[in-house]
Amino acid sequence: MKKGIKTLITGILLSAVGAIVVPIAVVLPLILDKSDQQQQFVVPSTTEVEVGEPGRHYLWNDYQTFYDGKNYSQSKSIPDGIEIHVADLDGKSLPFTSDTSISSSVGSYSKNSIGYVEVDSPGKLTVAVSGSPDNRVFSFSKSEIMKILGLIFGGIGLCLLLTTAGIGISIWGIIKLVKK
Q1: CB neighbours of 13 closer than 8 A, spacing ≥ 6?
Q2: Which residues face 104 on adjacent strands?
Q3: Please, what's the largest Cα pairwise distance for the chain?
Q4: β partners of residue 113
Q5: Is there a contact between 142 and 59 (Cβ–Cβ < 8 Å)?
Q6: Which of 116, 130, 152, 158 is the most buried (most CB within 10 A)?
Q7: Which of 165, 155, 123 is nearest to 25 (CA)?
Q8: Are 84 and 114 spatial neighbours (Cβ–Cβ below 8 Å)?
Q9: Which of 80, 66, 63, 77 is nearest to 130 (CA)?
Q10: Tens of pLDDT along 120-171?
């Protein structure tokens, strides 16, 4: 094999991994991740939810979802007069901050944020929602935005690094071939 062919092939393969495999490896888990650690429930009701780790936990309006054998397709906005109260098991009320800035759609499931609470330690919380004239599906889960952003920006960085290195190695392989 001519000197430089192995270098050229290595560069091409490295570029292909950076341009094709890394983006797929980053995007596929985001698309297929159904775990979301969300706990769905029908409101109006009082529900106990499990919080696995501290941080910002959101209450979501799952306006398009399938829950407990029934399809729910409702408006994005929640009805007027809904009251939300979140407390720990000792009954200590946690400040609920209204925040409707986040929405998410995956397949036939769509939800938008209603608000959040800051949780200091793992444990159980009680979420009480009243005042809704109709049954709706809400869910409660930790914010995953930093995980998603980390995957996206880490993937972009790795993609650029591998592709650039692959192009550089390919050019080096071509130079080796031409010098012969």
Answers
A1: 166
A2: 111
A3: 81
A4: 60
A5: no
A6: 116
A7: 155
A8: yes
A9: 80
A10: 888 899 999 998 788 899 999 887 777 778 888 888 888 899 999 999 999 9
> So what's the pLDDT on residue 63?
93
- Going by DSSP bridges, is the β-strand pair 109-119/55-67 parallel, antiparallel, or unpaired? antiparallel
* 95: Cα separation from own chain's centroid: 24
- What type of residue sits at position 58? Y
| 30 pLDDT higher than 80 | no
User: Which position has the token pair 């292909």?
Assistant: 16
Burial class (CB in 10 A: 0-12, 13-18, 19+), 65: buried
Q: Which tokens go with 32? A: 């297929």
Through-space distance between the first and last CA atoms of the chain, rounded to whole angstroms: 12
Radius of gyration of the chain (CA): 24
pLDDT at 41 over 70: yes
Cα–Cα nearest to 6, from 180, 174, 179: 174
- Distance of CA 49 to CAs 4, 8, 88, 93, Å? 61, 56, 10, 14
Q: Among 52, 78, 69, which residue's Cα sits nearest to residue 140?
A: 52
Single out the residue of 36, 28, 86 nearest to residue 59, CA to CA.
86
User: How many Cα atoms are found within 13 Å in the side-chain-facing hemisphere of 128?
Assistant: 10
